[in-house]
């Protein structure tokens, strides 16, 4: 049994890491998948891997910070697959982000960072929601982080924004039969994490977890598929932590 037969899902930031894992998992569940990313070479490779395995996928180039680019991606999806049912807002500046304080980060970099890591989810949602209405409704998953509840400078601030965006849009979209939720991962073992976070800091985080290991992209798949599927038909506006117990919220 597959949960998304004949449905179409867009996954942004799907050329590698967590996004690629989401895209492959959706294809395995019967969805037509749009592998959306700025990196055409890697994105096309992920789409080719899916189709070689018997799945349905295309690559779509997108800059989520640009509303016109988001709209063009939505239009491409409808031309290729006829509808849009699901969206995963995973794209973010992370692996190569500059580390700095809110008090001293160059303003131009801050604005660029937020335009991708926070505004990008809104741009994509604005681009697809009317297509979802035409399809009879849909579901969206935003990628948050436990950084929203710990000190992480402008990265953490962007994730606070993602959480608020998820909750606000839940009200705006609910009447159109569109649900929107977010996943907040803890430390995940990806190349991007290894690049941006010194190993000594990662090791310290893992020691403090109730479940003392780093997460993997596969650990996030179950939550993503559940939130997108009809199994979560009465779930919206929620932030789901998948973090080994890093953050307790009462």
Automatic annotation (TrEMBL):
Lineage: superkingdom: Bacteria
SUPFAM superfamilies, per the entry: NAD(P)-binding Rossmann-fold domains (SSF51735)
Matching Pfam families: adh_short_C2
Family recorded in the similarity comment: Belongs to the short-chain dehydrogenases/reductases (SDR) family.
Protein name (database record): SDR family oxidoreductase
Organism the protein comes from: Nocardia vinacea
Taxonomic classification: Bacteria, Bacillati, Actinomycetota, Actinomycetes, Mycobacteriales
């Amino acid at each position: 049994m597959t949960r998304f037969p004949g449905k179409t899902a867009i996954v942004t930031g799907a050329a590698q890491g967590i996004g690629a894992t989401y895209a492959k998992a959706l294809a395995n569940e019967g969805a037509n998948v749009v592998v959306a990313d700025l990196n055409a070479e890697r994105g096309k490779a992920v789409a080719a891997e899916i189709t070689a395995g018997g799945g349905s996928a295309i690559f779509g180039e997108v800059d989520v910070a640009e509303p016109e680019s988001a709209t063009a991606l939505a239009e491409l999806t409808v031309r290729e697959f006829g509808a849009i049912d699901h969206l995963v807002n995973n794209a973010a500046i992370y692996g190569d982000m500059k580390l700095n304080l809110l008090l001293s980060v160059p303003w131009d970099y801050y604005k660029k960072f937020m335009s991708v890591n926070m505004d990008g989810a809104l741009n994509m949602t604005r681009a697809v929601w009317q297509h979802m209405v035409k399809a009879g409704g849909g579901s969206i998953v935003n990628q948050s982080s436990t950084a929203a509840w710990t000190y992480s400078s402008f990265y953490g601030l962007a994730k606070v924004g993602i959480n608020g965006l998820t909750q606000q849009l839940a009200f705006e979209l609910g009447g159109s039969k569109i649900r929107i939720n977010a996943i907040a991962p803890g430390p995940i073992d990806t190349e991007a994490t290894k690049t941006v976070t010194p190993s000594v800091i990662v090791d310290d985080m893992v020691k403090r977890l109730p479940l003392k290991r780093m997460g993997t992209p596969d650990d996030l798949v179950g939550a993503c598929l559940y939130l997108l599927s009809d199994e979560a038909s009465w779930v919206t506006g929620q932030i789901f932590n998948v973090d080994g117990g890093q953050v307790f919220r009462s």
